[in-house]
Amino acid sequence: MTEILPAIGILLTPWQPRHEVLIGVFITLSSAFWLWINARNKNLKVWMLFINGAFYFAYIIASISFSG
Fold first, then answer.
1. Cα 19 from Cα 60, distance rounded (Å)
2. Of 33, 21, 32, the residue nearest 59 (C-alpha)
3. pTM score over 0.70
4. Other CB atoms within 10 A of residue 27 CB
5. How many CB atoms lie within 10 A of CB 31?
6. Residue 62 burial (CB < 10 Å; 0-12/13-18/19+)?
7. Which of 31, 32, 38, 59 could hold 52 in an S-S bridge, CB 3.0 to 4.6 Å?
8. What integer is the mean pLDDT of 51-63?
9. pLDDT (tens digit, 9 = 90+) per residue, 4-32?
């Protein structure tokens, strides 16, 4: 069940080095690194997940601004 969302993202993502794709890669890697560091230090709190939500909200804004 957890593989469905990444599979949808892979299918719907244009695999060309465009600005919105590169921003998405950067946001995904930076948010994963953020969670990994905090989980490794056993300091993961619920509010930290909201920071990841802010990263993805920024991605949506960046994708909309680059698409026009």
1. 12
2. 21
3. no
4. 19
5. 20
6. middle
7. 31
8. 84
9. 777 777 778 766 777 777 888 888 888 88
Place of tokens 């299918």: 11
User: Could you tell me if 31 and 55 are in contact, meaning their C-beta atoms sit under 8 angstroms apart?
Assistant: yes
Is-contact 66 19, C-beta < 8 A? Answer: yes
CA angle 22, 26, 28 (to 5 degrees): 115
Distance from CA of residue 9 to its chain's centroid?
11
Report yes or no: 62 and 18 within 8 Å, Cβ to Cβ: no
User: Tokens 């680059």 sit at which residue?
Assistant: 66
Query: Burial level of 59, CB count in 10 A (0-12/13-18/19+)?
Result: middle
Enter the DSSP assignment of 2: T
